[in-house]
Amino acid sequence: MACMQRSFLFMVLLLSAPLLAFGEIATPEDVVRKASSDLLAVIEEGRTYIDEDPDRFYRTVHDTLEPAVDFPRFARGVMGAYWKRATPAQQERFVEVFKWGLLRTYAAALTEFGDGEVTVLEPQGEPQREDRRNVQMEIRTGSGGVFPVDYSMGREADGTWKIRNLMAGGVNIGLTYRSQFQSAVKDPKHGRDLDKVIDAWGEVLAEEAEKQQEAAAVDADDPDGA
Length: 226
Description:
The chain is of the alpha+beta class. The chain contains eight helices and five strands; from the N terminus they run H-H-H-H-H-H-E-E-E-E-E-H-H.
């Protein structure tokens, strides 16, 4: 599975439930530990119907992710300087396009997730800010590979923690998407028109997914890189 697919997979798999039982506010590490069981159930069931009813699967993943991923902040980071240039209507529309573009482009990859072991690493030292936290973990695949993921989380006004960005295998996902957004704005076919870029964002993600699938196929054919 390619890096961007893995990145979204582990964002979904590990961050879905901001509260512990009895209403206790979860620590960032608690959020990560609890969420895996919820999403694994979604994945397992999704395998039985995704081909016949993919929209149902997308909605289920969406409903699981919505409480835990700060999509507005994630999308704002992707737009970068263009966020302030956008109208409130454009900002709101991009958040929705960004969110559903991710779900529809990468959610199917969730059903490919097989046996693996997730280890949440204990925090090292005191956080520099009380409202920011990085959660580090390692995913050991069934084949013995180790995939590091680093989640950037922020504390909301109600005390819950949400994901705002992540690094997967050393790749900063937010910065990667920001670069793609900037390239789309500068693309002559969009004429620096934010409405056109927002309309085409789903295509940008689809093209990226296709590239990643091609790269994954090459890796599968030549796992040793010979």
